[in-house]
């Protein structure tokens, strides 16, 4: 029996969307990507294929903190992390702190079929060589200039800015993510990030952990926000497991976000489940997400109310 595909993507979370110019550009970018990736699902792509393509598109968009446009760490280097989880096989793969690659999600894709499925820096570099991936520099002028500015303050800030427009400069919790339900009822989730920015060398992001990216045959979740907060809540896996244990996705998201709020976390999450419900939540002020419910594209960019979560069937 054919299932109505569903799709949700995000380009991070943050503290404010100040200018409409910034909002319009982010909206256009997210909507275009959602529509294009949804078309793949309509044309029979698997959830995993759609997630990989969606992550690549978001990684290639310099305004988001993943792939091209990733923020620089304390030593001025870019180190990226990405994960892919195929919910049907319940299989997680990922790379941690990889460099010189255009699309870190491609490495996670390759590792799906390996016996060693999560690799860090040197191991990821070896795979790049083995696969003959071209050397790629994801640095943008904007990120370099941000880093130079931060250096002037001797790294007083804990994180870098992560959304390109000046109006969005306070949106500091960048990551990208995609969760898809395909026409066979399969779910997949992917997440990719340049990290927090200005972090210590060797700091490990939530994005390549089940805390930040998780999927089963029941539900899938991709998180954004402060990695340490997401890890402490084990957020993605917690929402998915709550669904597996019988809560609706809306309830699972609400309970998990309430806990995050009570613990003063700074994060957001997107999700969908096997019944076709799409859900999202945040404790940060804004969540840069867009979704396709089978009929139309909508987004969460101006969703700044008091509710911690929302959902659509
Ligand atoms: N959520 C991305 C990071 O903190 O690395």
Written account of the structure:
The chain has one domain: Glutamine Phosphoribosylpyrophosphate, subunit 1, domain 1 (4-Layer Sandwich), CATH 3.60.20. The chain is 31% helix and 24% strand. It has helices at residues 20-42, 47-60, 104-111, 121-130, 141-152, 227-233, 235-244, 249-262; strands at 6-14, 80-86, 91-98, 118-120, 176-181, 187-193, 213-215, 219-225, 267-273, 278-282, 286-292, 297-299, 309-312. The strands form two sheets. The chain has an eight-stranded mixed beta sheet with strand order 4-3-2-6-5-1-11-12. A five-stranded antiparallel beta sheet has the order 7-8-9-10-13. Helix 1 packs antiparallel against helix 2 (47-60), helix 2 (47-60) runs antiparallel to helix 3 and helix 7 packs antiparallel against helix 8. The longest helix is centred in the first third of the chain and has 23 residues, at 20-42.
In short:
The protein is α+β, with helices and mostly antiparallel strands. Helices cover 31% and strands 24% of the residues. It has helices spanning 20-42, 47-60, 104-111, 121-130, 141-152, 227-233, 235-244, 249-262; strands spanning 6-14, 80-86, 91-98, 118-120, 176-181, 187-193, 213-215, 219-225, 267-273, 278-282, 286-292, 297-299, 309-312.
């Amino acid at each position: 029996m054919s299932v109505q595909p569903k799709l949700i993507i995000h380009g991070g979370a943050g503290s404010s969307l100040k200018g409409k110019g910034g909002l319009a550009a982010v909206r256009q970018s997210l909507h275009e990507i959602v529509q294009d990736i949804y078309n793949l699902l309509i044309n029979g792509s698997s959830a995993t294929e759609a997630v990989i393509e969606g992550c690549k598109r978001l990684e290639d968009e310099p305004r988001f903190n993943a792939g091209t446009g990733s923020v620089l760490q304390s030593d001025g280097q870019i180190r990226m992390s990405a994960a892919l989880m195929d919910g049907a096989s319940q299989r997680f793969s990922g790379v941690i702190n990889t460099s010189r690659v255009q699309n870190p999600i491609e490495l996670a894709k390759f590792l799906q079929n390996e016996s060693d499925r999560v690799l860090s820096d040197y191991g990821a570099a070896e795979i790049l060589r083995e696969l003959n991936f071209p050397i790629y520099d994801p640095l943008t002028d904007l990120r370099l200039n941000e880093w130079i500015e931060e250096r002037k303050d001797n790294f007083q800030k804990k994180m870098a800015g992560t959304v390109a427009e000046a109006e969005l400069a306070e949106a500091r919790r960048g990551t990208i993510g995609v969760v898809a339900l395909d026409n066979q009822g399969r779910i997949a989730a992917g997440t990719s990030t340049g990290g927090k920015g200005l972090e210590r060398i060797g700091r490990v992001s939530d994005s390549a952990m089940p805390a930040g990216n998780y999927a089963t045959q029941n539900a899938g979740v991709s998180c954004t926000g402060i990695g340490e907060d997401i890890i402490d809540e084990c957020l993605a896996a917690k929402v998915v497991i709550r669904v597996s244990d019988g809560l609706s996705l809306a309830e699972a998201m609400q309970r998990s976000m309430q806990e995050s709020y009570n613990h003063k976390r700074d994060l957001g999450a997107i999700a969908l489940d096997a019944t076709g419900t799409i859900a999202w939540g945040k404790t940060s002020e804004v969540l840069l997400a867009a979704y396709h419910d089978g009929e139309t594209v909508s987004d969460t960019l101006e969703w700044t109310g008091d509710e911690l979560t929302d959902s659509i069937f």
